[in-house]
């Protein structure tokens, strides 16, 4: 059976235009100019693609009664509209980021590729797009090679900002979602711009490294993500002094860096922080805030205010301490490490994390006999939605992709539904092995 995701992955420009009728081409082009944050405004699950705009919501679903099988609606307009154009433009442009781009079937399965081969394949994919898709490149400073550019896709009308800084991966920047997500340090837009530059500029220019003209914080993509600082040579000494502790070093103390940059800006010198670097900084600051909360709880769980406010019941001091311990340990949480009242504490962990970050999908894995108990306690102690995974394999696969905050499944299902589970972005996974399994091992 054809699924919504299959249908959207194969959607091409001509089909998208036809979906919107005679004005399809104009609507897609106009809609493509709207600025849409893929991570905030767009949701895609097995049943529906939805995109929230300021005063309209566009939904795309599968409709077996229609010839083209896709049904597109806008909450605000009765006929084909720019909002729908924006949705289709986004889908055409961002298949990779939406997880819609399936690799051609003749390829070696991803699991059997080495890390280097994986990176090579990802770059090849993007190179091919750079060579076959039509784009328009506008330089902010046409006489310079290493400068900022605006790149626009002909078909979708979408524009992104590029900063070219060098030939190597990780040196340049693009504001597109794929660049932010793929972590290889390049994208089809950067590759397109570099190809153009290779033809346009002389060898002498191509070999001259980018001159640093402003202070700039960027994210370097390599084996591990790293903040880097570009500093012009001709800075006044008092400004250079503020930046000296970070120049050419691994930046560890984010708060100190921000402090230094503020001082520099206070002296009237502009500082550019690229959006991906800013996001990285925010994430680090989030981790530090969580660590502070955890330390605060663990020092005196009995008198910590969260003991009364975290859940709809008052936690015992050792329970709140267990929650803090688990949050501090990160990643997957083992409910069994928490001893008595582990359900409450598992729920508390999800709740505590969601107060510091946008946690919206939690997978709870437990023995089949405990599933109903988990759901009962989630409803009793928190205001979060929950759903139990039930039914045949076919029914189950869509259930992981639901709108629920908590999804509760059992271990046997994890083994069978591994692929469906892997497709969903889980913010937190809680494991409850139950006493039974503990006893078997003993
Ligand atoms: Zn509309
Ligand atoms: Zn890009």
Description:
- The protein is globular, with a radius of gyration of 25 Å.
- It contains 20 helices and 16 strands.
- With 442 residues, the protein is of the alpha/beta class.
- It starts with a helix and ends with a helix.
- The protein has 3 domains: 4-93, no CATH class; 112-276, no CATH class; 285-441, Rossmann fold (3-Layer(aba) Sandwich), CATH 3.40.50.
- Residues 56, 74, 76-77, 81, 83 line the site of one zinc ion.
Write the layout of secondary structure elements.
Blueprint: H1 4-9, H2 13-19, H3 24-31, H4 38-41, E1 42-44, E2 48-52, E3 57-62, E4 70-74, H5 82-93, H6 115-132, E5 135-139, E6 148-153, E7 159-163, E8 173-174, H7 177-182, H8 188-200, H9 203-207, E9 215-220, E10 226-230, H10 237-243, H11 254-266, E11 271-273, H12 275-299, H13 306-309, H14 317-329, E12 333-334, H15 342-356, E13 362-366, H16 371-381, E14 386-388, H17 393-399, E15 406-410, H18 411-416, H19 418-423, E16 428-431, H20 434-441
Parallel strand pairs: 9-11, 12-16, 13-15, 13-16, 14-15
Antiparallel strand pairs: 1-2, 2-3, 3-4, 5-6, 6-7, 7-8, 9-10
Residues 56, 74, 76-77, 81, 83 line the site of one zinc ion (ZN).
As a percent range, the share of helical residues equals 40-55%
Q: How large is the radius of gyration?
A: 25 Å
Largest sheet: 5 strands, parallel
How many structural domains in the coordinates? 3
What's the total number of strands? 16
Q: Which regions are unreliable across 5 or more consecutive residues at pLDDT < 50? A: 436-442
Structural class call reads alpha/beta
Tally of individual helices: 20
Tertiary shape: globular
| Strand residues, percent | 15-25%
N→C terminal distance = 46 Å
Q: Strand order, biggest sheet?
A: 12-16-13-15-14
Average pLDDT metric: 86
Cofactors and ligands present?
zinc ion
């Amino acid at each position: 059976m054809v699924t919504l995701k299959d249908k959207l992955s194969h959607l091409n420009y001509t089909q998208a235009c036809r979906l919107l009728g005679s004005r399809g081409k104009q609507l897609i082009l106009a809609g493509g100019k709207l600025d849409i944050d893929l991570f905030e405004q767009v949701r895609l699950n097995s049943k529906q693609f939805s995109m929230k705009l300021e005063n309209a919501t566009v939904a795309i679903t599968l409709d077996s009664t229609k010839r083209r099988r896709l049904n597109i609606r806008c909450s605000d307009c009765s006929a084909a509209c720019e909002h729908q154009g924006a949705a289709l433009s986004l889908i055409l442009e961002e298949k990779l980021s939406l997880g819609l781009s399936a690799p051609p079937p003749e390829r070696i399965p991803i699991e059997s590729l080495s890390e280097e081969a994986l990176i090579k394949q990802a770059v090849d994919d993007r190179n091919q797009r750079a060579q076959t898709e039509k784009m328009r490149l506008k330089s902010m400073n046409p006489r310079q090679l290493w400068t900022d550019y605006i790149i626009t896709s002909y078909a979708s009308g979408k524009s992104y900002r590029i900063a070219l800084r060098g030939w190597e991966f990780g040196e340049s920047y693009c504001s597109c979602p794929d660049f932010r997500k793929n972590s290889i340090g390049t994208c089809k837009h950067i590759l397109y711009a570099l190809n153009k530059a290779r033809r346009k500029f002389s060898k002498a220019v191509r070999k001259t490294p980018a001159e640093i003209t402003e202070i700039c914080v960027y994210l370097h993509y390599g084996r591990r993500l790293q903040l880097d600082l570009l500093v012009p040579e001709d800075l006044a000494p008092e400004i250079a002094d503020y930046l000296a502790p970070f120049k050419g070093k691994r930046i560890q103390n984010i708060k100190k860096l921000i402090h230094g940059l503020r001082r520099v800006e206070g002296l009237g010198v502009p500082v550019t922080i690229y959006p991906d670097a800013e996001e990285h900084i925010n994430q680090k600051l989030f981790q530090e805030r969580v660590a502070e909360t955890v330390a605060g709880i663990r020092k005196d769980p009995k008198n910590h205010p969260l003991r009364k406010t975290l859940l709809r019941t008052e936690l015992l001091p050792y329970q709140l301490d267990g929650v803090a311990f688990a949050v501090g340990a990160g990643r997957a949480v083992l409910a069994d490490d928490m001893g008595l009242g582990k359900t409450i504490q598992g729920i508390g962990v999800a709740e505590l994390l969601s107060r510091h970050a946008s946690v919206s999908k939690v997978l709870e894995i437990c023995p089949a006999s405990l599933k109903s108990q988990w759901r009962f306690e989630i409803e009793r102690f928190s205001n979060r939605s929950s759903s139990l995974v039930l039914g045949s394999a076919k029914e189950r696969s869509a259930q992981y992709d639901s709108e629920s905050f908590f999804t509760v499944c059992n271990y046997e299902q994890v083994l069978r539904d591994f692929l469906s589970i892997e497709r969903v972005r889980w913010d937190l996974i809680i494991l409850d092995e139950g006493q039974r399994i503990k006893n078997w091992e003993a």
